[in-house]
Amino acid sequence: MKAFVFTLAAVLTVSSLFAQRVDEKELQPLSAFKNFPQGAVYQNTSLSPEARARDVLKHLTFEEKLSLTGGYKSFCFPGVARLGLRPAIMADASQGIRLQTIASKANSTSFPPMLALAATWNPALAQAFGKNIGEECKAHGVDFLLGPGINLQRLSVGGRNYEYMGEDPLLTSVIAVNYINGLQSQGVIATAKHFIANDQEFVRHIASSDLDERTLREIYLKPWEAVVKQARVRAIMTGNNAINGIPASMHQPLLNDVMRREFGFTGVTMTDWQNTNYHPDLQYLVARSGQTLLMANNATFAKYIQDFVARYPARKAEVEADLDFMVYPNLYTLFEAGVYDRAPTDKALLNTLPAHKETARQCAEEAICLLKNETNVLPVQRSKKVLLMGENELHSGTGSGFVAGYDHTSFAEGLKKTYGQNFEEAEKPTDAQIKNANVVLFRLNKKAGEGYDVPFEEPQGVNAEIARVAALNPNVVVLISSANGLPMPWLGQVKGVLWTFFLGQERGNALANIISGKVSPSGRLPFTLEKDFQDSPDPDFNFLGGKPYWQGNNNHYKEYWKGNEKNSRKEIAKYVKPHQLVHLPYDEGVFMGYRWFDKQQKEVLFPFGYGLSYTSFTYTNPKISKATLSGQDSVQVQFTLKNTGKQAAAEVVQLYVSDKEASVDRPVRELKDFQKVYLKPGQSQTVSFWVNRQDLSFWDTPTHSWKAEPGAFELSVGSSSRALRFTQVFTLEK
Ligand code: BGC
């Protein structure tokens, strides 16, 4: 697909706006207020959030209602001082708190980003992680966390992939639900973002993700349905993109009809920063779309409403009803989360921070994926000489997902603590230093972040450098700090590869525990690593005017596109009119991630779900509870998992379902469940999975409903999407 077009305004990275300070005096709970209007009952905490929100609506003026549809001071929901309602404070997200967005200067933990969290495949850890961040939000006076990011990784080059949870809707759903449950257990409002199919940074404010109904239902809507139904997420943020030509921020069919009416979402829907301002001619779509809050302000919408009422004064009541429709979910959510009844900051919770370091370290440890370990080059005994080379590793991506953290332990510091005199660090070591080491750890970094996608190419010069080092030392282990794909022509020349994502502030302690063997790796890839970007579903997705597009303000990114400098904003402006959309057809349909590579029978570098361990596991005694399934019954598959190696370790067992006789083209197999099982050496455990009719269904577009067709199905249990340990078959009856 060769796309064209562009607008200048669209490249502004609005999250660079910093928060303006909200006065402490503005942040009092309702209990501190005295001058309630006559007859008001919203201060009564024994009433339901619905009743309290309805009562506030009765006391608001038209202008006040209009103000409650837009943001305040860049990162707040406005208060109404006359009624004692305080503003609510927001902060980015998702791997902790981005301090630039709030006034607090105290420490906040940089946990690993969402992609690393997903790589742990550990729902309980995701819940603890969310709860920890919830505690930090309260310690810092944050009412809304602007996360987690739950978009799916459509392409390995997505600039914000590090903020999301990989390519599979089920894995994303499970991790997101647990994170949100943990976060919201603290009364903090989670904001799942960015609704929906906002999967690339390429022309991000004007891209239209064009996809069919079945693909939306089976793939893209799945995590949203899960966070609404299973976690009662209190807020969502709409994407900068359009879906099938309608901007996400005013997409009534999806926001109102699907999310609210069908899934039961009752919370705040906020735009991405300044998004509705990008569509000045479409303001009439906003009010009834299910959108409730225009961030960072509602300037364009407010002007549209004021002009409309000035022109048609007789229709003011009708407009006010529209404003009620927008404002009510905001008020309801703030009452329901207890925001109006408390002050935002609980400084006592700063004492939870030391414990959060433990969670951050555990998550980093469980995320690291061991991709290659020839001749057991890892773990490395403490008596061996270890050389760490290459540029400092990255702990976070850039943009609004960046979380600075404090008290970092770098890779070098963590390894130094473990290997003492036997450890050496040199960014560019001499040949002698390389030869002298027993093991060389080679840092390979790929920057990523908001506002730009990350080309598949290796960072400049890396391939040649690895080949040079591997020729000098037989025991090279490459540490890849990246959330994006890359070629690995050097794979045959190195002994080991660890995918280290970005791992937050505890990364060095986690890495040292893995390298030294204190902990066995248990991370599994939440995405497919393709051999070549040409194998991906949409290799030409970022072409504008026939040339690959780069966003000209990022030096690192420019390096990749040497020779294409002419493709600058000015040149792009030749192809587009302001606010014109760039259409990105999702022609791969439901064949997302591994579904695509399996269907195409493409070899990959490393498949989805892949990761090695320092121990070994057997899968024996597979059983299925019945040969036929009917009605609303479930079928159970069971087996014995045993740790047959010498080290305690966790295995991630993955259940894949294949429909063998379908009237539509279905994926070869799809992940339907998983468990992370921790076993001591010699220990075994029975593992069971249940599968029901819904797990076997596809979206039947003609009837707009789920359909499970009778016939043969396979249930396979694997240690990755391409390492199936056994398969059981059964027949679904009518
Ligand atoms: C980003 C959002 C972020 C917001 C506020 C936007 O540019 O896309 O993810 O929450 O800024 O910083």
Automatic annotation (TrEMBL):
Supply the Pfam families for this chain: Fn3-like, Glyco_hydro_3, Glyco_hydro_3_C
Q: Which GO biological process categories is it annotated with? A: carbohydrate metabolic process
- Give the E.C. number(s): 3.2.1.21
Q: Write out the GO MF terms.
A: beta-glucosidase activity
Signal as UniProt keyword: yes
Q: Which UniProt keywords apply?
A: Glycosidase, Hydrolase, Signal
* Signal peptide (from-to): 1-19
The residues covered by the Fibronectin type III-like domain are 651-721
**Entry's transmembrane regions:** none
Q: What's its top-level EC category?
A: hydrolase
What InterPro entries does its record include?
A: Cellulose_deg_GH3 (IPR050288), Fn3-like (IPR026891), GH (IPR017853), Glyco_hydro_3_C (IPR002772), Glyco_hydro_3_C_sf (IPR036881), Glyco_hydro_3_N (IPR001764), Glyco_hydro_3_N_sf (IPR036962), Ig-like_fold (IPR013783)
Gene3D superfamilies assigned: Glycoside hydrolase family 3 C-terminal domain, Glycoside hydrolase, family 3, N-terminal domain, Immunoglobulins
PANTHER family to which the protein is assigned, alphabetical: BETA-GLUCOSIDASE
Q: What family is this protein classified in?
A: Belongs to the glycosyl hydrolase 3 family.
Name-wise, this protein is Beta-glucosidase
